[in-house]
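In this section we walk through a basic example: taking a raw amino acid sequence and producing a predicted 3D structure, encoded as discrete structure tokens. The instruction is simple. Fold the sequence below.
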Amino acid sequence: MPVRVDRNILRVPRRARNAEAASFLAQWNDLSQRMFGDLANAKTAELAWQPRRGANTIGMLLAHNAVVEVYWMLIATGEFSAERLEDVLGLSMDGDGIPMPPAGEAPEHLRGRSLAWYRKLHDRARAFATGILGRMDAATLEKVVKRPRRDGTRHDSNVRWILYHVLEHQAGHYGQMLLLRHLYADRRKRP
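The resulting token sequence is shown next.
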């Protein structure tokens, strides 16, 4: 019997301006491919399902990942404005519905959206981020971005951390999506 071999090969473009930025992009792309592969058969009803009021839906999380990716790329370049984010995505900064009030329902404008719609939103965010990462050099990754917070404190991070944060943020929400898929499949099995 032949041995089954699973191959996980992550490639970084050889002609990238900055190999480290290109490596982050390759990791984002691999994670996105896996995420959309795992969601491939998710129907519109599943994407909009809430296990309880106040809980995120898979669709909200997909929209949130796109919003966050564009948000952090705009922060990294020092070009953030809510209007610019909406220009890129066609969705407002709070268009993902996150955070949601404890008894909130998913945003009306996300109900009935297909996986293909969320994929297009994701692809717009990724195309925007790809353009920005393609211009980054080693000095850009070291640049420290100082961002005031609503509570009056300040968050300082270098661009390298921002790229890492986009990766770990997407990975965390991908895990949530997988959990929601299990809960959705099990919802009829409960007593």
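Looking at the output, two observations stand out. The chain has seven helices and two strands. Strands lie at 144-148, 154-158. In the next section we compare this with other chains.
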